[in-house]
Structure formats: structure tokens, C-alpha cells
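Appendix B, example 12.
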Amino acid sequence: MKKNRNETKRNEKEGNEMVKAGEKQKNENRRRLEFTATEEYNGKNHIDLGEDGGFSAIYLFPEERIVAGWWRPSKEMAEKLGLDTERRIYRAHLHYIPADEEKEKRLLDKIGVYAYEFLYMIWKDWYFELIPQFDFSSKEGEGA
């Protein structure tokens, strides 16, 4: 019986290691589309958000519907959200929901798809997630 218990423990350990390896592989296989220099040069990585400001995309995770980049809120939006109106740019993720999920599926399955093609889709909704970053303008911690 002792042999069976040890074998069960070994199988559980191997199973746990396989799950961890699978999670690691999933993160490593996470598809990330970067904007090319040509896309950036032609402004295809920029989104005009109207009253909310503008967004410059760096890359996106299409399966997760996340665009990573820099958000430039309008002064009104910065005031509304209680953000520093002197600061002009914020690192952010823009989460989107496409209006046409069939079109999104075609893009997801397309070989050689460009990042900007996801930005050019019509979105029925979106929201921001500000990414914390170090504030270099802070005077805190300076010696007297």
C-alpha cells in the first residue's frame, strides 16, 4: 500500500507541474501584435477619442481585446477624473468590445494581420485602465 500512496503523491506532483507548465506556456504564447514603423509613421496607431482625448497604441493583445499605449486625456476629461491637468500623457490599456464580432473573428483568423486593423474596427464600447508608473517629478525623498 505504501507504494501506491507514493505513486499517487508523485502523480499529483507531476500533474501540478504540468498545470504550471501549461499556464507558463499560455503566457508565452500570448499573441502580441506590435505596430510597425510604417503604421506609426502613417498615424495608424493613433485613435481620436473625441472629448476623451487621444490614444497612441504601441501593441495589442487581440484575443484579449486590449490595446497598450499612451493616453492623452483632454483637459476636461483629466479634470473630470481628478487627474493632474499639467501631466499630458498616461500609460494605459484600452479595453474594447467590437461592434461586429464576425469581423473580429475574421481578423483573428487572418494570416499576416496588422495591428491597426483591430483599431479600425468599429467598437460598441471601450474603457481605460491606467497603468501605475513611477512619478519622476516627485520631490519626496530628496535630502535637505
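Confidence is low (pLDDT under 50) at residues 19-25, 140-144. Residues 31-130 form one domain.
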